[in-house]
Amino acid sequence: MISPIRISVIMPLYNKAPYVTEAIESVLQQSHPAWEIIVIDDGSSDGGPELVKRFGDTRIKLHSQANAGVSVARNRGIDIASGNYIAFLDADDRYQPGFLAKIVELITKFPDAGMLCTAYTCFWDNGDKEERCLNNLLPDSLLCIPDFYSAWTKGAFTYTSAIVIASRILKDSALHFPNGEKLGEDQDLWFRVAEQTKVAYANTSLADYRMGVQGSATQGNTVRDILPCYRRLSERLEHKQVPAHLQRGARRLLASHVLNIARANLKAGSRQKAARFLLDRRAFGNPFYLLRTALAVAFSAPQKNQKS
Q1: What is the C-alpha to C-alpha distance for residues 190 and 163, in angstroms, rounded to an integer?
Q2: Per-residue pLDDT tens digits for 129-183
Q3: Do residues 212 and 219 make contact, with C-beta atoms less than 8 angstroms apart?
Q4: Fewer CB atoms inside 10 A, N or C side of the chain?
Q5: Sequence-distant (≥ 6) Cβ neighbours of residue 232 within 8 angstroms
Q6: If you average pLDDT over residues 91-120, what whole number do you get?
Q7: What would the pLDDT profile of 188-202 be if each residue is shown by its tens digit?
Q8: Average pLDDT in the 266-290 region?
Q9: What is the pTM (predicted TM-score) of this model?
């Protein structure tokens, strides 16, 4: 007997009162109903939890905790969730109509896939929009991505609020969000999940990522050192813990990250630090990008009093 598809939506909430009502309404308006909406109040001080309490829907469950960070909030939601699939919607983002229905379509078409995701749209308060998807695919196509790392090298074709994971995978405590990290904590989990299961993808934008939110850790930050999620990926590659068919793509992605950091340091005026990342052996996994970055460093003008 096939189990019914029950999707728990986890929403971490920290001082997002201007947006949380819209986020919850976007879930309640889905054609395929969410099994439950678990809002984890991470010590908000702006009245957001009170707005959540105004909804009369019994599927909405509010849990409060002292401020501990988004990973702790999401992990608590995972532990509480009773659905057989778990979705993650940030309190300042929103689902487009049909998101959960498309996830159900992916689950039905690819029952062995433990990670389901869609394309998404970045939007700004001034009305600007930018769609992020896999450009080499036909619009609205459904597929299993054969090499998640190679696809990720070409750009972030999905993101946290457009991803759903089978709870059987996330109930393994080793596959939770890393605590205490403000950048890349979500990528870390997606990488490790993609090493464990098939990834099904709908090349249709069905989630909205709000840009320009004050206090967002992921927007407007320049990364000038290797993120912990990529350090751990490097360690898994070193110990041959990444599946063989994903290793080449993972090395290429890791190299791209190292070279992006080299370029960020060069732009910040630290030519010496850029050169150090350029010579990192992990940067050799993407030779063409390595060559372009080497030329950029070589032809940049040395600056006095460089930043370290």
Answers
A1: 9
A2: 999 999 888 888 999 999 999 999 999 999 999 999 999 999 877 799 999 898 9
A3: yes
A4: N
A5: 188
A6: 97
A7: 999 999 999 999 999
A8: 94
A9: 0.92
How far apart are the C-alpha atoms of 149 and 169, rounded to whole Å? 19
Of 140, 141, 151, the closest CA to residue 191 belongs to 151
Amino acid at 162: A
In this structure, are residues 96 and 205 in contact, taking their beta carbons and an 8 Å threshold? yes
What does the alpha-carbon distance between residue 132 and residue 121 come to, in Å, rounded to a whole number?
6
pLDDT for residue 220 is more than 70: no
**Are the C-beta atoms of residues 204 and 134 closer than 8 Å to each other?**
no
Q: Which two tokens stand for residue 150?
A: 């190679």
Closest by CA position to 38, among listed 191, 23, 283: 23
Q: In which element (H, E) is residue 17 found?
A: helix 17-28
Q: Which fold has domain 7-210?
A: Spore Coat Polysaccharide Biosynthesis Protein SpsA; Chain A (3.90.550)
Rg, the chain, Cα only: 20
Section 78-104 average pLDDT = 97
pLDDT for 291 beyond 50 = yes
Instruction: Provide the b/e sequence for 174-204 (b: ≥16 CB within 10 Å).
Output: ebbbbeebeebbbbbbbbbbbbebbbbbbbb
Residues in the chain: 308
Contact status, residue 37 vs residue 94, Cβ threshold 8 Å? no
* SS3 sequence of 162-184: HEEEEHHHHCCCCCCCCCCCCCC
Give the model's pLDDT for residue 302.
Answer: 67
Show me where the domains of the chain are located.
7-210, 228-298
Task: Specify the pLDDT at position 308.
Answer: 45
